[in-house]
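Shipment paperwork, digital attachment
Item: protein structure file
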Amino acid sequence: PEDLTIIGTRADWAASRLYPGATAVQRDFVAMTQAATRMLMQLVQGNPVRNPHTFIESRLVHRNTVRSRGA
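Attachment content:
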């Protein structure tokens, strides 16, 4: 962490078992699927997609591959 920061895109069980533990972005796949399904249903019904740019929050799961602030 002093020389190189590594952040993965999967905050699952495997990322937590690596040594050092991999910092990762945790995404809400349920919310992503729901948003995509809503958009698809609008298209299937012959309607334009009302809001194609949907913000779905994610969070950083800090483990040992990123230096802490102030360190």
